[in-house]
Design brief:
It contains four helices and 28 strands. It is mainly beta. It has one domain: TolB, C-terminal domain (Neuraminidase, 6 Propeller), CATH 2.120.10.
Length: about 375
């Protein structure tokens, strides 16, 4: 009874619908059988890429390009074949792919299959030139930013900063401190910020309710326990001045000035003072941004997508097909794309039983806005 009541109260809190007109139509772009995808990105020229972390589905490749309804390894099968002995030269377990405004695909490799500690050289950021489909840059993270508990999750770029731009990355650790990682794309030097700060950590006592049931870690053997994931979703403002982020195990969105975040001379104490809590958005995995200054987040408890605009949250759309909206990408065609991968139905949440029902889906909704391409 308490679980149902909590679910109802949360639904009422997030029930406002965007605008005065009808809700956008949810369209199916593609379906996936086999391994479960997490990330998606739509390049400015319309090419679509997805990724598959190595979580136990034995994905044949980490990154693929979607063409005519079929996904094939990208940029090659050889690069997608993990070789722990040469972890910096092959993909180990990819959590996110993001296309930038300079015609590149950036691949964020956790180096941590199955959420183990990142293997040496495995946690990295890889750039692929979309004109030649060749790897042009690999930035391997060192132990000053990638801890034994680190799980690099998602990334945003501002190519106007410095000589080659900057990348902002979330650490969505499940065992240690969350945090934000700032990478100078010219030198490859990275710094870790807000490590273990309340804004990058799970909310205390957080237990999401999905399909009427509390989501907890439920192994085949052993007791159920809270599943707590740190900073996960990330988005950047249209002017590049603000970074938005959220823990997966939270219903809050936070913001921090990017100028302070990337300035190593700014103390952690001063940086923490600049963090803003933008209120209750719903429980989200991924985030996205558009060129009209709006931020999008999934509401995985209610099969929905939420939008933050003019200081207020609203429900953009709900649909029974939105089964765990994971990663988002705004295309130049005015659509918001997102994966619906039933993550919460994995065996680890159901006593070892896989409750997922294939196929998984790539969905989209019309938002009449474009991507933020800071170049």
């Amino acid at each position: 009874m308490k679980t149902l009541l909590l679910s109802s109260l949360i639904a009422l809190s997030f029930g406002a619908v965007a605008g005065d007109g009808p809700r956008p139509v949810v369209e199916s772009v593609a379906t996936f059988n086999g391994a479960m995808p997490t990330g998606v990105t739509v390049a400015p020229n319309g090419r679509i890429f997805v990724n598959y972390p190595q979580w136990g589905d034995n994905a044949p490749f980490n990154v693929g390009e979607l063409k005519n309804g079929k996904v094939t390894a990208y940029p090659s099968q050889a690069f997608n074949t993990a070789d722990p002995a040469h972890a910096a030269q092959t993909l180990i377990s990819v959590q996110s792919v993001v296309a930038d405004g300079a015609n590149r695909l950036w691949i964020l490799d956790t180096g941590a299959p199955g959420f183990v500690a990142p293997i040496a050289g495995g946690a990295k950021l890889v750039a692929v030139d979309l004109a030649t489909d060749k790897v042009t840059r690999t930035i391997v993270f060192d132990s000053s930013v990638v801890l034994p508990t680190t799980y690099v999750n998602d990334v945003r770029f501002d190519l106007r900063v410095g000589k080659a731009g900057v990348a902002y990355i979330t650490d969505s650790s499940i065992k240690g401190p969350g945090g934000l990682i700032v990478v100078d794309l010219d030198t490859g030097h990275a710094i870790r910020r807000l490590s273990g700060h309340p804004s990058t950590m799970p909310d205390k006592g957080f237990v999401p309710v999905i399909e009427g049931n509390p989501l907890m870690s439920r192994p085949a053997k052993g007791e159920a326990s809270p599943w707590l994931v740190a900073s996960d979703g990330i988005a950047i403002s249209a002017d590049g001045k603000t970074l938005y982020y959220c823990a997966l195990s939270s219903r809050h969105l936070f913001a921090v000035p990017t100028a302070l975040l990337r300035d190593a001379s700014v103390s952690e104490a001063d940086l923490e003072k600049a963090v803003r809590d933008l209120g209750m958005k719903g429980a989200s995995d991924g985030l996205a941004e558009d060129d009209k200054g709006r931020v999008y987040g999934g509401d995985y408890e209610h099969n929905g997508i939420r939008r933050y605009a003019d200081g207020h949250w609203e429900t953009l759309v709900t649909d029974p097909r939105i089964l765990w909206p994971d990663t988002f990408s705004v295309g130049t065609d005015g659509y918001l794309y997102f994966t619906a991968n039933q993550l919460y139905r994995q065996p680890g949440f159901h006593g070892g039983k896989d409750e997922r029902k294939q196929p998984y889906e790539l969905l989209r909704v019309k938002i009449d806005a474009g991507p933020v391409l800071l170049k």
